[in-house]
Amino acid sequence: MKIGILGGTFNPVHIGHLILAQESVEELELDKLVFLPSYIPPHKSRAELINPEDRFNMLLIAIRGNPIFEVSRLEIEKRGTSYSVESLKEFRNLYGVEAELFFVTGSDSLKELPTWKDLNGIFRMAKFVVAERAGYSLEGVPEEANIISIPRVEISSSEIRERVRENSPIRYLVPDGVREYIEKNRLYRPC
To answer: What's the rounded Cα separation, in Å, for the pair 103 and 77?
Structure first.
């Protein structure tokens, strides 16, 4: 079995995340892709980070109807700072040694790669996959990495949060169900 793992804050999940996930499934011929929302990301500001349950729920809404996608509660239930190497150990235990694990990250994460906890451990447990992201260099891609190309989509979670704060539309940037969830729960709005 070939399983892709796509971690992140998903604050909120948007169309770019879903395109990255689908392209990963196609290019890597995955049987399953697991979205892994972090509880506390070690490399991102926590200032605008909303409740992990809301981020988890938005992911469930976003992947509805795609049987190859699933969302893991692993890092949310573990609590604390989320480290990829620790989560991969759990996935390895869950799926066994016969499963092929693919850890997917965007090229925007490359600048932080030297600070990741036990990067060599990640390389030992999974195939490391870097998705080329618009506006981010592939400089610093480890030689162990596979590079996949995805359609260029200029969307970011920070842009979506800013648009919500400004009361600008986010339709077509996020799935409709996610947009409705954000509106209903008044997420990303100033207090």
So the answer is: 20
